[in-house]
Amino acid sequence: MTPVERVVAALRAAEVPAEVRRFEVPVPTAAAAAEALGCAVGAIANSLVFDADGDPLLVLASGGHRVDTGEVAALVGASRVRRASREFVAAATGQEVGGVAPTGHPAPLRTVVDVDLAVHPLVWAGGGDHFTMFSVTYPDLVRLTGGVEATVA
C-alpha cells in the first residue's frame, strides 16, 4: 500500500468523511496548499513531527503558526521537543516531510492539535505525499488522531 492508500484506509476505518484531492504539482507547504485549494493558510493543518525526548510527537498546527516547542514540551511533559530529522519522520510515519498526514502511520503517534484550527469549518491536511490533501472537520481531526487540543503557537 502507498502512503496515500494507507491514509484513505485510515479515514474509512475511522468513518471520517473526507474529500481527498490530488494535485498535478506538489503542495509541500501550507502556503502552496492554501493557494491550490483557495482557502486561508490558517485552514491548513500542518502535520509536523517532533522528537520529544526520543519519541515521535505529531503536532497538527494551523498553517499560519510557528510551533512553540517550549510550550509543547511543557504540555506533553518532555524535557525537550525539537524538530525531527527527515529520517526520524519517515521511520515514525512512513511518509516524507512535506507530505505527512495526520493518520495512516505504521503505529499511532502521540498527537497535539492546534485549537486555532477549530475556527475553520473545514481544515485541510496532507494526504501522505506531496501531491495529496484531504478535508476534515476539526472535531473529526481530533477524533481521528486521538489528539490533545492545545495552543501550540
Provide an overview of this structure.
The structure is a single chain. The chain has 153 residues and is of the alpha/beta class. The chain is 28% helix and 26% strand. It has five helices and eight strands, in the order αβαββαβαβββαβ. The chain has helices spanning 3-13, 30-37, 69-76, 86-93, 138-145, and strands at 20-22, 44-52, 55-62, 81-83, 110-114, 123-126, 132-136, 148-150. Strands 1, 2, 3, 4, 5, 6, 7 and 8 form an eight-stranded mixed β-sheet that branches. A hairpin with a 5-residue loop joins strand 6 (123-126) and strand 7 (132-136). The N and C termini lie far apart (34 Å). The mean pLDDT is 96.
Topology:
Elements lengths: L2 H11 L6 E3 L7 H8 L6 E9 L2 E8 L6 H8 L4 E3 L2 H8 L16 E5 L8 E4 L5 E5 L1 H8 L2 E3 L3
Parallel strand pairs: 2-6, 3-5, 5-8
Antiparallel strand pairs: 1-7, 2-3, 2-4, 6-7
Rg (C-alpha, Å): 14 Å
Total number of helices: 5
Quantity of strands, as a count: 8
Q: Detail the poorly predicted runs.
A: none
Describe the biggest sheet? 8 strands, mixed
End-to-end distance: 34 Å
Structural class: alpha/beta
Tell me the series of helices and strands, N- to C-terminal: HEHEEHEHEEEHE
Mean pLDDT: 96
Q: Helicity, in percent? A: 25-40%
Percent strand:
25-35%
